[in-house]
Amino acid sequence: MRRLRLILAAFIPFLALAQGNVVVTDAVDAELQRGQVSVSVVCDDRSLGDLVQFALSLHGAVRLQPNGAARVVISRQGVSATVACDVARFAFQKEVRGRDEEELALLAADAVIAGVGRALRLRPLYAGTKVAFTSRGTGHDEICKTTLARARTLRLTSYRNTSIAPRWSHDGTRINFIASLDGFPGLYTTNGVGAPRALLTGVRGAIGAASSGPDGRLVFVSSNKGTMDVYVADANAKGARRVITASGSQTVNADPAWSPDGARLALTSGPTGRPGIYLASSAGGATSRLSTGYSYATEPRWNPVENKLVFTFQSGRLGLAVADLAAGTVQEVPAASAFDLSHASWCADGRHVVATQASRSSSWLAVVDTVTGKVTRLTPPQLGDCSQPDCWTRRD
Predict the structure, then answer these.
(1) pTM of the model
(2) How distant is the alpha carbon of residue 179 from its chain centre?
(3) Are 389 and 356 in contact (CB under 8 A)?
(4) Sign of torsion, CA 41 45 46 49?
(5) Domains (ranges, CATH) in the chain?
(6) Taking the CA of residue 201 as centre, how many other CA atoms within 13 Å lie in the half-sphere pointing to its CB?
(7) Helix (H) or strand (E) holding 31
(8) Phi and psi dihedrals of 174, rounded to 5?
(9) Is 235 left (phi over 0), alpha (psi -120 to 50) or beta?
């Protein structure tokens, strides 16, 4: 009997430990079923660790917790780092190297997403995304750029004028924007060094943002001929050709965006006050209205990964919805926010967008997960009102 008690005494701790592992495993499985994973980050460099954790905090599938199911350790060596997780369920190890601390943080965050997110098929998000936007931090609309680590935000214009509607060039080296530097609205481009280069000036009428296609061609709208028509030009805005003509003065065309292959355009069109989303060939011709289920739909942007569009709708407030063109479905982004969301631009993973979030008195940029609806502020208050984000995404 005494021997039996000794055997039981030795066995019970192992039994309790096994039961504890079952509980933990069940909790992790339940978390993954919800499309999430809890992560803790330990880094031997505080500055790098803070940047990585900020980036990860933007992801809708990641919950940062001190005792997360996936414990990630980051060891820094200059502008290189080893990112690893030794928890069997999420085990991985990856070496990353950046040009500076910010890029290193973005690559490390992507390594975490790719490593612990295998079961959820998460795609890299951070290093392949750059964000241009308009800020009123100086009291004037100026063009700025940042990343999803938000370590460094650069103001690219200082004209004490109205510089708006930034759009990245196809290769991510320049930003096109609208300004009235000569008294009339025109298209300009800058790489952030020296004076901007004029692309299209002297427009007698309105002009819209110039979006760059995969081959560098620009698409924009202009009322230079009386109606708001859509034009396609080369990368220097030369040889502009009208491809879509408004049916009359009451019809407004706006927000043209390229499909990833450059074959199609998505745009806002329709009567003033009742705009809708339309699709057309980039070579021109007839447009076809996309059935969205909303009487007010605008600002379409094409997903870089899948055949989807994100757009802004108005139904009591401004919100975001995603149209899956392959499936023929439209799904409202379930954002748990009382503030308006608009003007969204896709990030590199084809899941998150950067959007304008606004209250009655101010606006800022937010990262929105179109799957879970998680909304996280990106721009700090000291930048003033921020809006009109445009994301450059790396094309592999």
Answers:
(1) 0.91
(2) 24
(3) yes
(4) negative
(5) 20-120 (3.30.160), 129-393 (2.120.10.30)
(6) 11
(7) helix 2-33
(8) -140, 160
(9) alpha
